[in-house]
Amino acid sequence: MLLDAMASQLNSVRLKLEQRRKRIEEEKRKMESVMEKQREKVGQQAFFKAVIKGVNLLTKLIFHSFNLNWSMLAIYFLVFL
Questions:
Q1: How far apart, in whole angstroms, are the C-alpha atoms of residue 47 and residue 35?
Q2: H or E segment at 25?
Q3: Is the pLDDT of residue 25 over 90?
């Protein structure tokens, strides 16, 4: 009888520990999911920032290129018209 009670108590402790382990694993998965979403968001922001910076640089280069072309175009019109 005493052995049965101890076995039952031990089994109860095992079940509680297993439930606790499962809860901890679930919380860990949730936190990993949150962290992954945060990493994706930060990575996306960095990507867009780099793209915008590249577009701005390209726009400046084109603008300066057009300034030269506008000068050449003005000379062309003055000379040939």
A1: 18
A2: helix 2-80
A3: yes
